[in-house]
UniProtKB/TrEMBL annotation:
Protein name: N-acetylmuramic acid 6-phosphate etherase
Span list, region Disordered: 1-22
Encoding gene, per UniProt annotation: murQ
Assembly mode: Homodimer.
GO molecular function, one term: carbohydrate derivative binding
Organism from which the protein derives: Paenibacillus oryzisoli
Amino acid sequence: MKGVYENTMNHKLTTEQRNERSEQLDQLSAREIITLMNEEDQKVPLAVKQALPQIERAIEAIVNKMANGGRLFYIGAGTSGRLGILDAAECPPTFGTDKELVTAIIAGGSQAIFEAVEDAEDNGEVGRDEVRTRLHSGDVLVGIAASGRTPYVLGAVQEAKKLGILTVGLSCNTATPLSQWVDYAIEVSVGPEVVTGSTRLKAATAQKLVLNMMSTATMIRLGKIYKNLMVNVQATNDKLRHRVINIVMEATPTTEDEARRYCDLAKGDARVAILMLQCKVDYSTVVQALDKSGGHFGRARGQLMVQGK
């Protein structure tokens, strides 16, 4: 543990360097502060753009694993861990996935979601234990660490590599230890923060953008979206029930009354309602096609279209 700390001190990370533009930050007005922050934030998507080839390669590998029954795990500490939790939590309602398909692990456990557990990130052995206990060989582990040096995350990816688990690393520095250990390295260097070392700012924004891309593109490739419609959305409240009806109307030339009727027949499943309308088949036929395709909407639709000819 001491060696990791000393190595970090000997090589000052970009995310820990002082930002020359904000050296007089405490002397600025509120308007000047937020203007400066806004200008710095604009650098983030440009930095992410530079990493698109790395992100693409990681997504293709993740899709391949998940198409063959693998699960996606995020692991991180502090803000990085919370961002993983946020992304994982949104997958079931958005894409209709099982809650175990995309999972996030944070150093310090559930307590660390709501309050800082700063020393939790220093224990690499706990990270190793999480991997040994929770992951299987066909899964994917995405280690998230702005510094690229967090011992908890490094321990996790090292154990995953040992067990033959596919690994991805997401950091906001270059040539990091995390990148050296993983199969697919994503490095988004956003430069020094407005508040020195506060990686909940630009670094966290970059991580959020990449995680958005990673989960969204993966789910699209797995057939969870039709055109640009959330056909797998879970209708768990009134707002989402209305959304399902609107999705069915967008995907098919039908009236609101008919869309509502088919949604009822489909038990609130937009995919089923759309395919019943488009392919002129009954509920059980659509469900069978979706089961056969592994829940891939496009493939199920293709099967039903061929059957209807």
